[in-house]
Structure formats: C-alpha cells, structure tokens
Amino acid sequence: MYISSLRNNSSFRVRSMAEKEHKEKLATRVTPPTLPKSPPQPASTGSPKVSTRFLDVMAFDGPAPERINGRLAMIGFVAAIAVELAKGQGLFEQISNCGIAWFWGTSVVISIASLIPLLRGVSVESTSGRIMTSDAELWNGRFAMLGIVDLAFTEYVKGGPLL
Question: What is the pTM assigned to this prediction?
C-alpha cells in the first residue's frame, strides 16, 4: 500500500531513445528549481589572517593558552622526574624547596617566548614541520599535564616520592 501511494504521486519517467527536442523539453521539466546564486567568494591568496590582538591570542579558544600551558607542563614533568631520579625528592618536596621560584621564572620566560611570534601574526600551523607538528605539540602538552597530575596524585596516595 505504501509503495503504491508513492507510485501514484510520482511524475518520473524514463525514456531510452528520444529526439533532441523532446530531451530539451524533458530536461527543462525535470530540472529542479535553482537557488539564487551567491556572490563569488574571493580566492584566498596565502595563509589566513591571524589576529595579533592580545585578547584574541589569549582568548579561551585562542592559540596561546593551551600551548603555553602544554609547554610548561612538558618542561615541568621532565624536570620533576629528573630531580626525583637525581635527588630522590618527590614533587611536593620539590615545590617546597625553592620550586615556586623556578616555576614562576620558567613560566614568564616560556610565556613571553610563546607570545612574541603569535603577536607578530605568525600562525602556529605555519611553523609546523613534518615530525614536529603543531598537533603533536598539543598532544604532548596534554599528556604532560596528565602526567604531572598523575605524578602528584600517586605521590600523595603513596605518601612519598614515586621512585
């Protein structure tokens, strides 16, 4: 029943060999209505414009916050593991023994070094290579952030250094 009702409302015909005039008539009849054409878009000539305003660069979805935090986390995770292996101090002990001063100094240097190219209009993707891509940097930073949290949680539960 459902198929037969569709068949009654359908105006679709198939003809195998038709004359040229009939093909033109059929083409004009079958052709769906066209939408109004939009104005042509200008072709992009080069890389997209990147905002150099400080508030745009540092916005929640801007290019700087996650990259800076990821870079700091990568340095912090490697430093925390290295100091723990060398001196046997856990993460919390490292922070209490002059670790805050090192953290602030590193944060300022890395933040300024990361912001200078972005504020000059250089996009992060334009500086990517084959191996060292911008996506790889983001993922390494995310894993380093998780690593620091995991290291702190494990040392808290264990009650001392991880190693």
Answer: 0.61
